């Protein structure tokens, strides 16, 4: 049975969050294909992880049998998060753009889950090859050729960290202009925003179905 690791990080509920809504489309299609599968869901906004501190960071570089009680406790969380990633057949991440980058709650997950010599820092990280779909929603437009192209630090960052550092097979679904319906001055972009959102839902569903077909063929 396939296992999906699903991370949400939007501050808002699904009714007010494009990243949550699009991720939900992926998950619905995934669960239809894997009715007996497992979904590990972490809502990083509702149940945030502690930010990485010195104790947790140092524990990642020390042998477990040398850990202090404080390091052992901190490392237990990092190990749990790494195991969730390692045991997943696919990863789904909702990553809305806040102030031009990812939410700090998602950054906390990244900081904990990167363990040098295990999930990163080796020729073959422990999660290497795992497909990951990232729903990178944003209120404006940051694509190539747009005035704010250089402000895009969601795809650029996660593509490098998840893909090049951790070895995941990363695909992005990017609903843009999500603020157009509620922002004065963006009225002319509402139709484009709706088109982008519709395409994002369709792309999310397609990714889920394609991954299901890939796993079925491998059985």
Automatic annotation (TrEMBL):
Textual note on the cofactor: Binds 1 FMN per subunit.
Ligand binding (FMN): 10, 17-19, 137-140
Cofactor: FMN
Residues covered by the Flavodoxin-like fold domain: 3-173
EC number: 1.6.5.-, 1.7.1.17
Catalysed reaction equations from the record: 2 a quinone + NADH + H(+) = 2 a 1,4-benzosemiquinone + NAD(+); N,N-dimethyl-1,4-phenylenediamine + anthranilate + 2 NAD(+) = 2-(4-dimethylaminophenyl)diazenylbenzoate + 2 NADH + 2 H(+)
InterPro entries registered for this protein in UniProt: Flavodoxin_fold, Flavoprotein-like_sf, FMN-dep_NADH:Q_OxRdtase_AzoR1, NADH:quinone_OxRdtase_FMN_depd
Homology family: Belongs to the azoreductase type 1 family.
Role according to the record: Also exhibits azoreductase activity. Catalyzes the reductive cleavage of the azo bond in aromatic azo compounds to the corresponding amines. Quinone reductase that provides resistance to thiol-specific stress caused by electrophilic quinones.
Subunit structure: Homodimer.
Protein name stated in the entry: FMN dependent NADH:quinone oxidoreductase
